[in-house]
Amino acid sequence: MNAMYDLIIIGAGPGGIALAAEACASGINQSQILVLEKGATHNFAIRQLYPDQKLTTANYKGFDARCEGLLCVSDMTKSETIEFFDKVISDYQINIQFDAEVFGMRAVDQEGGARFRVESSNGTYESKVSACL
Ligand SMILES: Cc1cc2nc3c(=O)[nH]c(=O)nc-3n(C[C@H](O)[C@H](O)[C@H](O)COP(=O)(O)OP(=O)(O)OC[C@H]3O[C@@H](n4cnc5c(N)ncnc54)[C@H](O)[C@@H]3O)c2cc1C
Fold this sequence. Notes:
Layout: E1 3-10, H1 14-25, E2 33-36, H2 44-49, E3 55-56, E4 76-77, H3 78-91, E5 96-97, E6 102-110, E7 113-120, E8 123-132
Parallel strand pairs: 1-2, 1-8, 2-5
Antiparallel strand pairs: 3-4, 6-7, 7-8
This protein binds flavin-adenine dinucleotide.
Flavin-adenine dinucleotide is lined by residues 10-16, 36-39, 43-46, 49-50, 56-57, 60, 101-102, 133.
């Protein structure tokens, strides 16, 4: 029997972390939410791609920065951005498995309804809902 979750999220970048926090806030128990991240830390892309002196701007590329969710960000340095997400992960007790690269996801029919089967380098998991960000 594979480990079963209500929601599996692939990728612990801003999108995946925000979705996990929103899901917690909407009433899904955090123990039922799993984030699988292929990197050794969250926000692997930001850590790798942003120059150290770069400011994370809220109105990136001129987009209007209107906050419609839980995570409202203002302009921050790269390290402040990482700390901001550290705090979100801690506040919402988001369950992230690191070094877990997902290489397959498919819908399977089972007694009790359809499920998603997610195959990763850390093992195989099942969920009612999966989101790849
Ligand atoms: C140089 C640069 C500067 C930027 N500056 C800004 C800015 O100032 N302001 C702004 O708002 N936006 C900026 N952006 C854009 C912003 O970084 C992205 O919009 C944001 O990171 C997207 O978030 P995401 O969670 O969708 O994806 P990502 O940040 O790409 O996160 C995806 C995560 O998924 C993981 N992953 C990928 N594949 C797998 C897999 N198979 N299994 C498990 N995990 C996986 C990755 O390791 C990563 O941690 C910038 C982007 C770049 C490249």
